[in-house]
Amino acid sequence: MKMMALWNQATLDRPPYIMWQVKPPEAKRTGVDVSRFKKTLSTVIHDLESMDDLHRNIAVLNRLIYRMKTKFRNDKGFMSMVKLGKALDNYYRMRLKNDYVTLKSLIQMRDGMFNLPSRQNLEYVLARTQGFGKLMTRIESMSRISSHHFMSRMRLGQLWHVALVALATICRIWFHTRDILLKCCFWYDELYRYTPQFQYVGAKPWLPNDQSLPHNLKSWLCVDWEDKDLAHNSSTGKQLIREIMSEEYDNITNEKIDTLMLDEDDSEVDDSEADDSRLTQNIKVTLNNNIKDKSLSNNDMEDIGEVIDRETFVSSSRSNLLSNDESTSIKRKYMNTDQGKRSKKSKIRRKQKCYRK
């Protein structure tokens, strides 16, 4: 039966705390930079301690899962969010910081000699870092899948306000996970360079014969998105983008010049036509004004007064007609209501007479 990989084990047996000694000149001759090794361990511990924003978003995610589990129990986005929550619980259980703290505590200086941890302890921390990186890739992929489902829900418009809160929390977790994943690759590469320089203490090595640690964690995790981002920011990529943009700009400017030349030709024709039309309009307006002036000059003041009197008579007659119609309509309404009341009273009296008889 094949043994499970060391990075995939939830509880990994720690090797014994065994140290080996080396003098400072010998360490310098062999290339063991103790100060840099200690500095990398302190940076790793600092990075692992400064994850308060990630832990805050994980707490928000757990509360969202608790509140959404009744209404969204069959939703694909919610199910992927539950898987993301389980992966984050495994992240809490790993406690990688304790391993680095214990590894740093083994570095001591006694009697002018360095007491360094054994190679077995270093390989144990590297295996735990490998599993931590694999877990981060799992969290990154699950957050990407769940965010895709919540984005589709927002496009549909169904319970979009709940989906928006969940999407914002998952996106923040995704962002922090990517940052931690890049840092994890840097930690592993910095520590792996010390493995051939550190010594085994004891006859039996800690790693099994059929397993080995990867030389490059980034290639083992298939973190290709960082290379794509770096390609976009590289100098060659910038030069290509500038060349493409310059070609497109030249094409756009040439097209704009051609269209402007065509527009100018059309505008000249349109201006000439507009001028002709304006002249004809002015001629027509002057002719109409002359005709009106002539008609007004032929009429006398008495005729104008008669016209005004006629207009006032027509308007007054119209207002009188409207007022009469409105009064008749109001009277008819009241007449109808009175008639209705009288008919009801007569019906009631007839019924009463019938009952008396």
Automatic annotation (TrEMBL):
**InterPro entries given in the database record:** Nepro, Nepro_N
> Does the entry feature the keyword Transmembrane helix, yes or no?
yes
Tell me if Cell wall biogenesis/degradation is a UniProt keyword of this record: no
Q: Where is this region: Disordered?
A: 316-357
Q: Which regions span the lipid bilayer?
A: 156-175
Q: Name one GO biological process term.
A: positive regulation of Notch signaling pathway
Which residues lie in Polar residues bias regions? 316-327
Name of the protein described by the UniProt record? Nucleolus and neural progenitor protein-like N-terminal domain-containing protein
| Taxon lineage | Eukaryota, Metazoa, Ecdysozoa, Arthropoda, Hexapoda
